[in-house]
TrEMBL record:
It comes from Tigriopus californicus. Keywords: Membrane, Transmembrane, Transmembrane helix. This is Band 7 domain-containing protein. One of its GO terms (cellular component) is plasma membrane. It comes from the Eukaryota. The chain crosses the membrane at residues 29-50. Belongs to the band 7/mec-2 family. It holds the Pfam family Band_7.
Length: 289
């Protein structure tokens, strides 16, 4: 019977001859005797032994089977029915569904010496049940601790502006770091999201004042540009009106109409523009004469 070496992925386990391992032959003989005794016990106690020997795992589960402490060949069992030998085999179920957990708020000092509180959510799943069982004691607890540590390490290299504006980039960096670190455990980090970034109250007020000042500056610039464009348009309109007396007369009447529409108590008697021009023309003739 081949003997398997240590805690390694089941798909990478290589059978090593017993002579090369230098293990005593008694251990192998004892394993065979106990296995044979268990098989005889199952056959004698049929059909009652089926209740103990036949196990079921769901579609989203896998069972890692050990025989006398050694990992059985063939990898994890399931889904469906599988057979174990009583008193010889033990098994452990592993859930393959995606699991999510909240990373507790972490007090992080950014690269520009600003203390922020950041929390995140991590989604992961077991990709290799054998490695998740053999290579680490508690993959769930270890993944949670590693996620909190990775969050602090990644945010410590970012400025405050980068933390606020580059959440997707930070999430991708965290996912890659977690995936690389948990790969020997048989765990796959599927997604990492930054939930919230909390700033100190004093810093929030300073940022609000800065944003308000920036908005006021932009508003003044926009108003100045509008005044400049309006003055140019008025200058062009005045040039056009000065070249045409009829246009000046129409503009005069339009102004009187808008003033009369305001329902004020002042009565305005319009004076024709040509009437004024006649007086101006006579005065000019008298000066010439």
């Amino acid at each position: 019977m081949p003997v398997f070496d240590g805690i390694v992925p089941w798909n990478k386990v290589k059978a090593v001859p017993k002579a090369k391992r230098g293990e005593p032959e008694g251990a192998d003989v004892c394993t065979m005797l106990l296995t044979a005794f268990s098989l005889v016990l199952v056959l004698v106690t049929l059909p009652f032994s089926l209740c103990v020997s036949v196990k079921v795992v769901q579609e989203y589960e896998r069972a890692v089977v050990f025989r006398l402490g050694r990992l059985r060949s063939g990898g994890a069992k399931g889904p469906g029915l599988f057979f174990i030998m009583p008193c010889v085999d033990t098994y452990k179920k592993v859930d393959l569904r995606t699991v999510s957990f909240d990373v507790p708020p972490q007090e992080v000092l950014s690269r520009d010496s600003v203390t922020v509180s950041v929390d995140a959510v991590v989604y992961y799943r077991v990709s290799n049940p054998t490695m998740a069982t053999n290579n680490i004691e508690d993959y769930s607890h270890s993944t949670r601790l590693l996620a909190a540590t990775t969050l602090r390490n990644v945010l410590g290299t970012k400025n405050l502006a980068e933390i606020l504006s580059e959440r997707e980039t930070i999430s991708q960096v965290m996912q890659n770091s977690l995936d690389e670190a948990t790969d020997p455990w048989g765990v796959k980090a599927e997604r990492v999201e930054i939930k919230d970034v909390r700033l100190p109250v004093q810093l929030q007020r300073a940022m609000a004042a800065e944003a308000e000042a920036a908005r006021e500056a932009r508003a003044k610039v926009i108003a100045a540009v509008g005044e400049q464009k309006a003055s140019k348009a008025l200058r062009e309109a005045a040039s056009v009106i000065a070249e045409s007396p009829s246009a000046l007369q129409l503009r005069y009447l339009q102004t009187l109409n808008s003033i009369a529409a305001e329902h004020n108590s002042t009565i305005i008697f319009p004076m024709p523009m040509n009437f004024v021009n006649q007086f101006l023309g006579r005065k000019s003739e008298e000066k010439i004469s």
